[in-house]
Request: fold
Amino acid sequence: MSFAITVENLSKSFKETKAVKNISFQVPQKKIFAFLGPNGAGKSTTIKMMTTLLAPDSGSIVLEGVDALKNKDEARQSFGIVFQDQSLDDELTTLENLEYHAALYHVPKELRAKRIKKALEIVDLWDRKDALVKTFSGGMKRRLEIGRSLIHYPKILFLDEPTTGLDPQTRNSIWSHIKQLNKEGMTIFFTTHYMPEVEEVADEVAIIDHGKIITQGSVSAIKKQTKTKSLEAAFLKLTGKHIREESASKLDGLRQRVKVMRR
Amino acid sequence: MSMEVIGVMIKRQLKRYWRSKPRLLGSFAQPLLFLFAFTFGFGPIYASAGEGNYIQFLAPGIMMMSVLFTSMFNGIEVIFDRQFGFLKETLVAPVSRTTILLGKAFGGALVGMIQGVIIFLITLLVGFRPEITQIPLAILFMALVALLFTSLGILIASRMEDMHAFPLIINFLLMPLFFLSGALFPIEGLKLVPYFNPLTYGVDGFRGALTGSFIFNPILGLGILSGCALVVIVIGAKLFATTEA
Reply:
């Protein structure tokens, strides 16, 4: 079996806190892989490092055979990402956002119009192609971000809490898109706090807590290991029941304030 | 480096500039206020001191003011992009950080220049009479000033997270730069200070090209401005390489 993602001995510290402690895992190609953990467990830090946005202290990351720490641009070309919080330009239209993306990912000019149309059809937004993004609901923005991440034909798709805050209809529609993409051969790496979602779609699960991977395997294997009936129960058994305080970075704190201000 | 990426980044900035009408209008207010207040306030004194028509002296200074302020404040777009998440989309793309910096710098500089050209048209209405033969040289000076100060704004923004602090810091820098540049009054009374201000050479070269009277050799001015712009861009590229999304 070949692997889409290989992470080895990855570590990252911020001042005194060790956010990620020497973790290693592999994601097989063409699988749906769920990366779970309570708030502050090290999920976001790991994803930032895997997607070249944060330099690790030590360790290695290989994406589709490309060393993501040495050949950053080549690695960046191989994956698409839907971030935890919004990353669209509100002042631009749907098409303008997608054209920006296509240019940044060096999609050949003659293919752009076709790929953009296809991506928008997949996420049901073709009829809103000329609308300013600021007129969109949260669910529509999410769908647009998923559509955008497909334009450069990535081999791996990272989804950081893609369904948080969305209604069941939108969640259902987003997952059916993602499952379809996976069927067509894309490796999916996602995080979520909705355990039933994971039970339904994930081929393999890794749970991280306090910066360490505490278990990895199929949903059924993890349930068996913990002698529980649901993944939610298994998750609570493995990570405990006390509530975590996420130590938000300064930037996240700022974004929270902006969100409040915009209400 | 990809020209196309730089192009698409410039296009985005122009669209955002054009779509934000309050920003468009608001950015004329201050230069116009200065133009009218100083023309009516100092004009007669300037003329009675035997220096001639003040508007001929002031108009290029006000255009430079507009270019300078718009350019430096462009840096806030980096902070906005970071806060609203769009910076991540740009930083995760397979594009060198230097290209991203140049795209932002050229886009911002172009916005600054458009602003300067609009003020130029307004000064024509209030009686400014430029020499048209040297307009390409004037545009060159304007472009270098716009590029230098846009890059400086981005450099500062790449290390800042607080969008409330940015205007304060920028104003703190802008005011002395502007007042000690000879934009509003001749620099003779300011001793040596203006010689250390790159904007002085920008204002002088721009004014010289439009009115025919230079203090410094324009080649020297172009050299100093290009050198400063290069230094700021190189430092900016270094800082931008490690900026957090």
In short: The radius of gyration of chain B is 18 Å. The interface with chain A takes residues 2, 4-5, 7-9, 12, 15-16, 19-20, 82-86, 88-96, 161-162, 242, 244-245 of chain B (CB under 8 Å).
